[in-house]
Amino acid sequence: MPSFDDLALGDAATPSVIWSYWDKGPAKLSDFRRLCVDTWRAMNPDWEIRVLDSRSVWDVIQPSELPRQWRDMYVPFQADAVRLALLAKYGGVWMDPATICLKPLDWWFYGPIRSSERREGIAGFYFSSWGVEMGCSAEYVENWVLAARRAHPMILRWHALFNSFWDSVQVGTLEPISLPEHDMFRHIDLSFLQKFGQDMRSYLVMHACFKKMIDEDAEMRRIWQQDMLLFRADDHALWHVDEPDVQWSPEAAAKKWLGPLDEAWARHVLQHCPVLKFTKQFATLLDGEPRARLLGQSSPRCCLSAAFEAALAFPPAD
């Protein structure tokens, strides 16, 4: 096995690398998720793409950088731990596999972080629909696309809080983890994670740790308010699941995205959405679709095939 030093990404504070994690390995990705990763390569051809799995993760992370019970954690929590450890240690960009990249990252997301003329050292999306002030505030920082300079103080603190929580609970028991009653969070207002008939407080551990961080640490709150490059996911990365024809319905999504091509939809996405994130229920829906259909090769072009075609054909021909 290569040493950690052999695989280190040099001394750059902002390496050109996209990190991701799929516990069973990239060869086990569905056609849909594999096409998503292909868009990362097409849009960022000079970047390194590293989709790690439960074995290769040890090539770049030491056990001490993850929660002690990492191997026994639910896979989404494993991925959370990995993303924080990687961004803390190396910097770069994290993307969940079910994410289509439609614009080069340096054009809009990572370029400002690289720039010595900009103060931002960390970037992400916030979902205002789940903010404390619903529709306006930015406490609900998403974790499916994140970027940071190496050893950024906010990532370091977030990483430490996340690991501290998991090192204090018993993983693998039949008892559900009750985060709101935990000593770390009893005094933190997490009511914004209870919306639309869902209580997500014990599932969204990274989000809870972020809220604790900005509530308790004045410097972290300042970074969040002033030095974090934040994009409103409602308008960009999640627009396609919230728009009037879909409104978070998997059935409506399948009809919209896989049905006849809607040229207006395609134009809007290509003009306004630098990435499209497909949350679990929508990604699972698309996991069963063959590559040929997703690319419009075995059936008439659809909305999704238009998005994939545009991304994979980048840069456009003269």
Automatic annotation (TrEMBL):
GO CC terms of this entry: membrane
Single GO MF annotation: mannosyltransferase activity
Source superkingdom: Eukaryota
InterPro entries cross-referenced by the UniProt entry: AfumC-like_glycosyl_Trfase (IPR008441), Glycosyltransferase_domain (IPR051706), Nucleotide-diphossugar_trans (IPR029044)
Any GO BP annotation: mannosyl-inositol phosphorylceramide biosynthetic process
Gene3D superfamilies membership: 3.90.550.20
Record-given protein name: Capsular polysaccharide synthesis protein
Organism whose genome encodes this protein: Polarella glacialis
